[in-house]
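hiii so um. not sure if this is the right channel but i have a protein structure encoded as tokens and i wanna go backwards to a sequence. like what aa goes where. can anyone help
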């Protein structure tokens, strides 16, 4: 699908037909992280996998903020008919919180996958600043070397082919996208006070071994949103959609089939 955005035609990966489902990737990744889940969901849905700003042909954000990323996500949904089921993984979840605050009518159902509602605390902001320095001085492969072990569970880290796939996605990211993501995540607002404003059907998914946004963070989101369901993916780390795409796709498929009728 082509989306007109900032005077450009931006290509968005699309497969399948049916109700629209948009899969939003995390950091430091792109829409390919959802490839396996998307293939399974495409049996029932029209699945869109945009790249967030500063990747491939998606323009730079006017400001590196989650609010600006959400403007792009809203443009994708508008091009797809104005309303969609949205699944946001980690940073993609931060964007989904923003999208829901700015354009609640665009979100027909929300899935928060391995993500969290609180903002960065002082220590986390310091870590972001150091990562910005690493990306500038040493490039995306240094970020990859530090990041990949944290994305997977101990068992996932022993799967050579999986590790290589994750690495190749991280390594092809350009320094701009890495820096913009880090700034946007570092300065993101607290989404806890607006959890109870989310009134659409909601699913929360988390890998039981998620070391970046552990199950307690998922429980906090589920507790804050009336009627939200929580699914735990046993044995999966943070990057559950790549580590166990069958289980994540099954949870999302059942949820979106029910809520996008
Ligand atoms: C992500 O997976 O998108 C990021 O690791 C989230 C974060 O660092 O807060």
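sure thing!! here u go:
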């Amino acid at each position: 699908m082509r989306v007109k955005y900032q005077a450009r035609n931006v290509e968005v990966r699309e497969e399948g037909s049916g109700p629209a489902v948009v899969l939003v990737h995390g950091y430091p990744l792109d829409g390919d992280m959802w490839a396996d889940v998307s293939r399974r969901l495409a049996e029932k849905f029209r699945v869109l996998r945009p790249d967030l700003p500063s990747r491939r042909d998606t323009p730079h954000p006017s400001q590196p903020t989650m609010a600006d990323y959400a403007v792009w996500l809203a443009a994708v949904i508008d091009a797809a008919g104005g309303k969609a089921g949205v699944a946001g993984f980690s940073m993609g979840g931060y964007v989904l919180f923003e999208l829901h605050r700015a354009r609640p009518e665009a979100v027909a159902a929300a899935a928060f996958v391995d993500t969290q509602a609180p903002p960065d605390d002082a220590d986390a902001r310091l870590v972001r600043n150091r990562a910005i320095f690493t990306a500038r001085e040493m490039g995306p492969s240094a970020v990859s070397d530090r990041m990949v072990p944290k994305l997977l569970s101990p068992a996932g880290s022993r799967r050579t082919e999986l590790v290589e796939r994750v690495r190749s996605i991280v390594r092809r990211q350009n320094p701009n996208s890495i820096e913009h993501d880090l700034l946007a995540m570092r300065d993101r607002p607290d989404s806890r006070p607006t959890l109870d404003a989310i009134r659409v059907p909601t699913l929360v998914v988390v890998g039981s071994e998620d070391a970046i946004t552990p199950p307690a963070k998922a429980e906090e989101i589920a507790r804050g949103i009336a009627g939200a369901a929580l699914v735990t993916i046993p044995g999966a780390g943070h990057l559950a959609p790549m580590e166990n795409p069958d289980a994540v796709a099954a949870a999302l498929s059942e949820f979106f089939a029910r809520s996008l009728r």
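oh and The beta strands are 2-5, 8-11, 13-15, 20-24, 46-49, 84-89, 107-113, 202-207, 229-233.
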